[in-house]
Write a structure and sequence with these properties.
This is L-aspartate oxidase. It comes from Methylophaga thiooxydans DMS010. The protein has 512 residues and is α+β, with helices and mostly antiparallel strands. The protein contains 14 helices and 18 strands. Helices cover 34% and strands 15% of the residues. Strand 7 and strand 8 form a beta hairpin. It is globular and about 65 Å long. The relative contact order is 0.16.
Length: 512
C-alpha cells in the first residue's frame, strides 16, 4: 500500500504494543502433504458452531499460503523442522485435525510484528505516530452535514503533548484489536479496549456477533504474571489439564480431551473450579523431555522460571481469561465496512471467518489475508484529498480536578462484566449488567461532555460502548452456541439455521 500512497500509522502506545505482539502459537496454514484446504475449511466451520460464513472461510484458507510466503520474503523467521532446510515445523492446536500451525518458537506474533515494523520504520511513505489515540472518526454526514456519507479521517489525541489533531485521509483503516480489557481477567495487553469497534459503532457501522467472546482456557495464574498466556500449542504437544490432585478431567467433557475447541475447554475448567471451589487448575507438560520443552517453548519456560515455576518438573497453575473478540464491525471480503472509505481489519472486524468460536491460530491468518485484500482494493481506487473539516472544539470544557471517577468506573465495569457476562451467562445476570451499565454510561457521558479528554477517559468511554454491544448481543441470542453459553437456553437451536446477531446503530431498540 505504501508503495502507491502515503500512510500514517497511529498507535496509542509504543508502535509494537498490541495483542499480536504476544501471540505465541502461530499461524494456521496448509503446508503438510497429508493436510488439505478442505480439511482446514471443515475444521474452521466445525469450530465456528454453524455460524461461519463459508465464503469467508474458504477465501481465508485458500489465501493462507501466499501470505505466509510473503512473510518469509519480508524476513520473518519461522521454526524449521530439522529434516530439511526448506521445511518448517508445524504444530497442532485445539480444533485442528492436522499439524498446520507454522510458528516462530513460541513467540510468533513478536517475530512477525517486529520484522514488519522494522520495514515500516524505514519506508519513505510511512509516517508513524506512537502515543496517539483516536477520539472519533470524521465522517461527511456528521462533520459537514453532507451526503452520501463517507469516512474522512479521525480526530486524534496526542497523549504526550495533550493536544488534539485532525488526521484527514481519503481512506481510513481500523486495526485496533479487540476488547479483552472490558473483563476483569484477560490475556490481552492494556491497549485492548475496543477503540476501533466503538468508534465504528458511533460513526454508523453495523456490529455483528459481539456475544462471542473467547476465553482462553489457560492463562498463567500468579499474582505477578499479569495476563501471561500459556499457549494452546502446549496442549498440542501433549500437555494435560489436571485438578490439584493430579486427576485429568477433560475426557469427561469432550472426546478430544485437551484438544477440544477452546470454548469447551474454558467451560470445563470454569465448571471444575466452581464445583470444587478452587482458584485454578493445572497444566502439566513435565512428562516431556526438558530439552524439548525449553527449545519449543523458550519464552513460556523463561517467564515461568522467573516466577519460581519449573514447568519441566511441575504443573503450572492456570485459569481461563478473556482472550479474543470474535465479533466486531461488519465487513466484506475486502475489509470494507458500511461507510465508504472506512475499512476494518483483524480483531476489530467481523469478517464471518470465526463464527461462534474462533479456531486456534486463525486470528493472525485473518489479519494477513484481509489486510492484503484491503490494500489491493484501496490500490484500485482514485484517492482524492478529503475536504477541510472543523477542528476539534474543546472550548466549552475544563480540566478535570481528579481522576478517581474514571478509575472507579473502569474497575466497576470490568468487575460486573466478569461476574454477569462471563463464560456462563443467564438472562437475569445480563439484565443486571445492563442496568449497572446504564448508570455508568450516564456518568461517563456527563464527565465526557464537561472535561478535557484524556486517554483513560477515551478508553473508558469505548469500553462502555463495547460492553453495551456485548450485553445486547447476548440478550438477543436465545440459545447457547459456541462461546455464548446461557443457563436459560442451554441448547442450540439445532432445528433452525444459525443467524448472526447484528446490531444497527440506526435502530434505537436493539436490545431484548
Amino acid at each position: 500500500m505504501a508503495d502507491t500512497a502515503k500512510v500514517a500509522v497511529i498507535s496509542k502506545d509504543q508502535l509494537d504494543e498490541g495483542a499480536s505482539l504476544y501471540a505465541q502459537g502461530g499461524i494456521s496454514v496448509v503446508l503438510d502433504k497429508t493436510d488439505s484446504i478442505q480439511s482446514h475449511i471443515d475444521d474452521t466451520l466445525v469450530a465456528g458452531a454453524g455460524l461461519c460464513d463459508e465464503n469467508a472461510v474458504r477465501y481465508t484458507v485458500e489465501h493462507a499460503r501466499e501470505n505466509i510466503e510473503w512473510l518469509i520474503q519480508q524476513g520473518v523467521s519461522f521454526t524449521r523442522d530439522g529434516v530439511t532446510a526448506e521445511t518448517y515445523h508445524l504444530t497442532q492446536e485445539g480444533g485442528h485435525s492436522h499439524r498446520r500451525i507454522i510458528h516462530s518458537a513460541d513467540a510468533t506474533g513478536r517475530e512477525v510484528e517486529t520484522t514488519l515494523l522494522g520495514k515500516a520504520k524505514t519506508h519513505p511513505n510511512i509516517s508513524l505516530f506512537p502515543f496517539h489515540i483516536g477520539i472519533d472518526l470524521i465522517t461527511s454526514n456528521k462533520q459537514l452535514d453532507e451526503q452520501p456519507n463517507r469516512a474522512l479521517g479521525c480526530y486524534v489525541l496526542d497523549i504526550e503533548k495533550d493536544e488534539t489533531n485532525t488526521f484527514l485521509a481519503p481512506v481510513t483503516v481500523l486495526a485496533t484489536g479487540g476488547a479483552g480489557k472490558v473483563y476483569l481477567y484477560t490475556s490481552n495487553p492494556d491497549v485492548s479496549t475496543g477503540d476501533g469497534i466503538a468508534m465504528g459503532w458511533r460513526a454508523g457501522c453495523r456490529i455483528a456477533n459481539m456475544e462471542f467472546i473467547q476465553f482462553h482456557p489457560t492463562c498463567l495464574f500468579h499474582p505477578k504474571a499479569k495476563s501471561f498466556l500459556m499457549s494452546e500449542a502446549l496442549r498440542g504437544e501433549g500437555a494435560t489439564l489436571q485438578l490439584a490432585n493430579g486427576e485429568r478431567f477433560m475426557e469427561r467433557f469432550h472426546p478430544q480431551g485437551e484438544l477440544a475447541p477452546r470454548d469447551v475447554v474454558a467451560r470445563a475448567i470454569d465448571y471444575e473450579m466452581k464445583r470444587l471451589g478452587h482458584d485454578c487448575v493445572y497444566l502439566d507438560i513435565s512428562h516431556k523431555p526438558a530439552a524439548f520443552i525449553k527449545s519449543h517453548f523458550p519464552t513460556i519456560y523463561k517467564r515461568c522460571m522467573q516466577l519460581g515455576i519449573d514447568m519441566t518438573q511441575e504443573a503450572v497453575p492456570v485459569v481461563p481469561a478473556a482472550h479474543y473478540t470474535c465479533g466486531g464491525i461488519m465487513t466484506d471480503l475486502h475489509g470494507r465496512t458500511d461507510i465508504p472509505g472506512l475499512y476494518a481489519i483483524g480483531e476489530t472486524a467481523n469478517t464471518g471467518l470465526h463464527g461462534a468460536n474462533r479456531m486456534a491460530s486463525n486470528s493472525l491468518l485473518e489479519c494477513l489475508v484481509f489486510a492484503r485484500a484491503a490494500a489491493d482494493d484501496i490500490k484500485q481506487q482514485t484517492l482524492r484529498t478529503p475536504p477541510q473539516v472543523p477542528a476539534w472544539d474543546d472550548s466549552q470544557v475544563y480540566p478535570a480536578k481528579e481522576a478517581i471517577a474514571i478509575s472507579h468506573n473502569w474497575d466497576e465495569l470490568r468487575r460486573f462484566m466478569w461476574d454477569y457476562v462471563g463464560i456462563v451467562r443467564s438472562t437475569s445476570r445480563l439484565h443486571k449488567a445492563k442496568q449497572r451499565l446504564a448508570l455508568l454510561q450516564n456518568e461517563i457521558r456527563d464527565y465526557y461532555s464537561q472535561h478535557h479528554i484524556s486517554a483513560d477517559l477515551l478508553e473508558l468511554r469505548n469500553l462502555a460502548d463495547v460492553a453495551e454491544l456485548i450485553i445486547d448481543s447476548a440478550l438477543m441470542r436465545k440459545e447457547s452456541r459456541g462461546l455464548h453459553y446461557t443457563l436459560d437456553y442451554p441448547d442450540s437451536q439445532a432445528t433452525t439455521k444459525a443467524v448472526d446477531t447484528i446490531i444497527n446503530p440506526r435502530s434505537q431498540d436493539h436490545a431484548a
